[in-house]
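Need a sequence for this fold. Nothing fancy.
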């Protein structure tokens, strides 16, 4: 009963929406912030409800870093690939032309982190745009640790550990195993 009511309300709202913005469909990007571990595959989801013949539309995905670089595009079912950064790693998840604009990126890299812009160019109509952010995280590499100072009674020693790779910057936790000593001072260093 409640579901039926909310469905009706949903239909009513979308009808109102169409009435306010006639002919202008919105692009849907269900996940605007995506996190992935480097090396994994990721799907950037986007779709829209076309109000005209989709065969005439052009789909463009851009990666927005310092400059905007083309990732992939498709005009009337004819694909074209862009930047070498994404070459051979990206593709549309659905056969084009399609109202589902989702793309996949294989073997993600840290440098894929950033903003992604999807556009639909529709002849004689306003273009649709949508944006999402991808964060490619890197697991920390095993830390390299060093000791400075002489490990003598009442002497000071500094332990340092650092990982070459890791995004976000790795946090370290130091623990001392046996024997338990009171008043041991641990100095923290990255
Ligand atoms: C973006 O600009 C910064 C500083 O201007 C530069 O260090 C970096 O390499 C540039 N990145 C790309 C992908 O061009
Ligand atoms: C992406 O990875 C999938 C699964 O590993 C594979 O089937 C597909 O061919 C790859 N696509 C590209 C363009 O590399
Ligand atoms: C569009 O395609 C993506 C990837 O295959 C899928 O996850 C999503 O559910 C599809 N969206 C719709 C509305 O069918
Ligand atoms: C060890 O460090 C403490 C605090 O910084 C200092 O007061 C002390 O003199 C140092 N001891 C030696 C042996 O360097």
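Here you go.
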């Amino acid at each position: 009963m409640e579901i039926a009511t909310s469905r009706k309300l949903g239909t009513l709202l979308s009808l109102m929406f169409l009435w306010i913005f006639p002919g202008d469909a919105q692009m849907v990007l269900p996940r605007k912030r995506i996190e992935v571990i480097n090396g994994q595959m990721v799907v950037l989801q986007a779709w829209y409800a076309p109000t005209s013949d989709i065969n005439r539309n052009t789909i463009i995905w851009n990666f927005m870093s310092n400059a905007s670089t083309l990732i992939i595009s498709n005009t009337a079912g004819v694909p074209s690939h862009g930047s070498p950064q994404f070459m051979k790693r990206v593709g549309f998840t659905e056969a084009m032309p399609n109202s589902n604009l989702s793309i996949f990126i294989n073997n993600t890299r840290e440098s894929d982190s950033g903003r992604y812009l999807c556009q639909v160019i529709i002849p004689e109509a306003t273009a649709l745009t949508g944006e999402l952010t991808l964060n490619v995280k890197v697991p920390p590499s095993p830390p390299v640790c060093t000791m400075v100072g002489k490990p003598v009674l009442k002497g000071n020693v500094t332990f340092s550990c650092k990982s070459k790779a890791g995004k976000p910057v790795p946090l370290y936790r130091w623990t001392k195993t046996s024997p338990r000593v009171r008043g041991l001072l641990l100095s923290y260093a990255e």
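For context: Residues 73 and 80 are 5 Å apart (CA to CA).
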